[in-house]
Amino acid sequence: MLTFLLLLAALANDFNANAIRAHVKFLSSDLLEGRGPGTRGDALAESYIAAQFESYGLDTSIQKVSLLGITTDEAKTEVAFTKEGKRLAGPLKYRDEFAGGDQTQKESSTLDSEVVFVGHGAVAPEYRWDDYKGLDTRGKTLMMLVDDPPASASEPDLFKGRARTYYGRWTYKYEIATAKSADAVILIHTNEAAGYGWQVVRNSWSGEQAYVRKAAGAHGLSFAGWITENVARDLFAASGHDLASLTKAAASRDFKPVPLGIRLKGRIGSTLRSFETANVVAKLEGSDPKLKEEAVLYSAHHDHLGIGPADPADPDDTIYNGALDNASGVATLLEIARVWSNTTPRPKRSIFFAAVAAEEQGLLGSQYLGQHPPVPAAKIALGINLDELYFFGKVKSVTMLGVERTTFYPAAQSVTKSMGLTILPDQAPEQGSYYRSDHFSFGKVGVPAFTIKQVPDEAQRPLVKEFKEKRYHQANDEFDPSWDFASVNQIAELAFRLGLEAANAAQPASWLPGDEFARPRS
Question: For residue 397, with 0-12 CB atoms within 10 Å meaning exposed, 13-18 middle and 19 or more buried, which class applies?
Fold first, then answer.
């Protein structure tokens, strides 16, 4: 009965598409200069979000996140390859042929190491897979593919079949190489394997990269970067190998690392900047004397790429506004918070709203929040994340990345059905979307968490395709006054209703037994 009364109160209050529009317009304006972490625009976004939360009467706090920014100094950087002491390829053109930087957190590193092709670079005992086969990786440059080993007719579920697992994410590949004390990692980009074009790599990796400071003596990669498929193909051929043949060989458990007979040579120069960014967190306290110690957590990242390379179509445009990615999610988060603040009676569990930082740098803000949550992670009943929503007409279907892996799935199905919506599976599982947004940080600490995404109909698909190809992580992801906010309003109401169910449920949601994120609840 309480849930029904709360829902009536919320719907009577209504969700305001114009409010969402206004938030998106401000957060993606040139005034905020792309909201790069630790910049003036980032601070303005944090202040704006906090002011909105406070205007709703919510208990609001700023959780500082200390980071080190590293920007590759192009003038002091040179990447080339040699064979038997002679120049084989390079110097490569920064941004056009390679991108990346130094993870040692030093101002300069010298590159001089043997290059070994390690296939997909995966060590997955549950699949009886090891691409390293005892290779001593210390001091070597590891060249690898940017995806999972592929499934086969005899093993259709190998590495979850078509779905991308964490083993196929660039973050995993850098992490394992660092753990194995490699000197450098070079990822071979293809549109199909990465799930996006080279322009996304260029724009994402050519600006400042943020990191948590390493402990004294901790190992870091002297170079962590990418090369284009054309460069890789030519390099393999010049070294007496065939990229296509070795890619095919890497699809087998029998694959063994292949020394390419070449060396990575050069240097990486970096500019270092210590700075702080912040997660903005607001709380609506629950009404139940006991259950208010538990919580439902809504999240969306407030950062984007800041100022970067000029848009080729507009040489004067260097601000990466991030309107869809992710002013859209933050604006929707704010509207959900406003509606919750006006809803009476209050839910049993407390509700937290978190605008998290530095997602584009590797989910750093949500990682910090997951490690320093407002209530113990075991007491967070559900996490609902909002990232990159589209501004087109109403939709009939949504995805909730990962919800089917939780005990909350039946409730989610019921809620969507009541709204005339259908939950569809991940529409691009090969892109590993579950591991690319902030819910992943909460999943890693045991919180059942997922991201809600719209599923476009046939008429809307060209709009999504156009964004992915021409706007994603590019300077023209800008506010458009012609946008239709109807479907974002749907998502706001859906997210509210899902949170309502979780906030008043007799038992908190959990991961299904055996899931990689399953943890005991206490």
Answer: middle
Supply the DSSP string of 322-350, one letter for each residue.
Answer: -IIIIIHHHHHHHHHHHHHHT-SSPPSSE
Nearest Cα neighbor of 460 from 392, 389, 387, 388 is 392
Domain extents for the chain? 2-35+285-504, 71-272
How far apart (Å, rounded) are the C-alpha atoms in residues 514 and 74? Answer: 47
35: left (phi over 0), alpha (psi -120 to 50) or beta: left
Beta strand pairing call for 223-227 and 184-188: parallel
CATH, domain range 71-272: 3.50.30
**Quick one: pLDDT at residue 152?**
87
Q: Is residue 27 packed enough to be buried (19+ CB in 10 Å), middle (13-18) or exposed (0-12)?
A: buried
Sign of the CA dihedral running 401, 406, 411, 413: positive
Q: Do domains 2-35+285-504 and 71-272 have the same CATH topology?
A: no
The answer to whether the beta carbons of residues 305 and 32 sit under 8 Å apart is no
List residues bridging with 223 in a β-sheet: 184
Q: 167: which 2 tokens?
A: 């083993």
Quick one: CATH architecture of 2-35+285-504?
Answer: 3-Layer(aba) Sandwich (3.40)
Q: CB neighbours of 489 closer than 8 A, spacing ≥ 6?
A: 15, 17, 20
**Residue located via tokens 């990159």:** 388
pTM across the whole model: 0.84
The mean-pLDDT minimum among 44-53, 55-64, 215-224 falls in: 215-224
The phi and psi torsions of 205 (rounded to 5 degrees) equal: -110, -5
pLDDT of res. 218 = 92
Kindly report, residue by residue over 345-373, the tens digit of the pLDDT.
999 999 999 999 999 988 999 999 999 99
pLDDT tens-place string over residues 102-141: 999 999 999 999 999 999 999 999 999 999 999 999 999 9
